[in-house]
Amino acid sequence: MGTPLDSRAAQTEEVLDRLYEEYPEATISLNYSNRLELLIAVVLSAQCTDERVNEVTSDLFEKYTSAADFAQADESELADDIYGITFHNNKAGYLKSIGETLVEEHDGEVPDTMTELTDLSGVGRKTANVVLQHGHDVVEGIVVDTHVRRLSRRLGITTEERPETIERDLMALVPEADWQQLTHLLISHGRAVCDARSPDCEACVLEDICPSSKVDSDVDLASGEAWG
């Protein structure tokens, strides 16, 4: 297997250095033009690809341009408008509820605190972190999506399993200045090279320090299971 550095801090620093060089333009891949569109897009992206979300929101954001539009929407019509999104019926309910809450409690604006954001339907800490970072320039934590969870475990940076505990573990380890970009770098690498089922370890810039490398390791530390 690859040989990780002597400490998690050193391992993390080396991972960041190499990924910054490999993906200098890494950033959010959802399309949006304001905070409301960002919030809606991130809610829709749960368990759905950003590519599909961008396809759906290109028309959605022309039809619904304010929180009031979502609040006043017919839920079944809204579900049809986001058809193709995973769990579109449930998410239509989230979007309508979000619109109602924004109108009733926030003058139609997207709030800028973790507590107020996570009080919205369908918004957990991961979604709130994205909205804070890219909508309000507030970096309060680290977004732990499926790529961040997989790669941080696979690379031996953390042994935690739940997104909430992974986030706390990474926040104590990663310099605060890198919190936002860490997510984008790991997502970029996860999509390009280190996917869930068949990572291209031989093409990976981290292979020599990765304890899960398929080149000479039998176990994927992301899942704790043997490579298939």
UniProtKB/TrEMBL annotation:
Its EC number is 4.2.99.18. Keywords: 4Fe-4S, DNA damage, DNA repair, DNA-binding, Endonuclease, Glycosidase, Hydrolase, Iron, Iron-sulfur, Lyase, Metal-binding, Nuclease. CDD domains: ENDO3c. [4Fe-4S] cluster binds at C194, C201, C204, C210. InterPro entries: DNA_glycosylase, Endonuclease3_FeS-loop_motif, HhH-GPD_domain, HhH_base_excis_C, HhH_motif, Nth. It catalyses: Hydrolyzes mismatched double-stranded DNA and polynucleotides, releasing free thymine; 2'-deoxyribonucleotide-(2'-deoxyribose 5'-phosphate)-2'-deoxyribonucleotide-DNA = a 3'-end 2'-deoxyribonucleotide-(2,3-dehydro-2,3-deoxyribose 5'-phosphate)-DNA + a 5'-end 5'-phospho-2'-deoxyribonucleoside-DNA + H(+). Belongs to the Nth/MutY family. Binds 1 [4Fe-4S] cluster. Its cofactor is [4Fe-4S] cluster. Residues 44-192 form the HhH-GPD domain. GO terms for biological process: base-excision repair, AP site formation. One of its GO terms (molecular function) is 4 iron, 4 sulfur cluster binding. DNA repair enzyme that has both DNA N-glycosylase activity and AP-lyase activity. The DNA N-glycosylase activity releases various damaged pyrimidines from DNA by cleaving the N-glycosidic bond, leaving an AP (apurinic/apyrimidinic) site. The AP-lyase activity cleaves the phosphodiester bond 3' to the AP site by a beta-elimination, leaving a 3'-terminal unsaturated sugar and a product with a terminal 5'-phosphate. This is Endonuclease III. It holds the Pfam family HHH. It is an enzyme of class 4 (lyase). It comes from Haloplanus vescus. SUPFAM superfamilies: DNA-glycosylase.
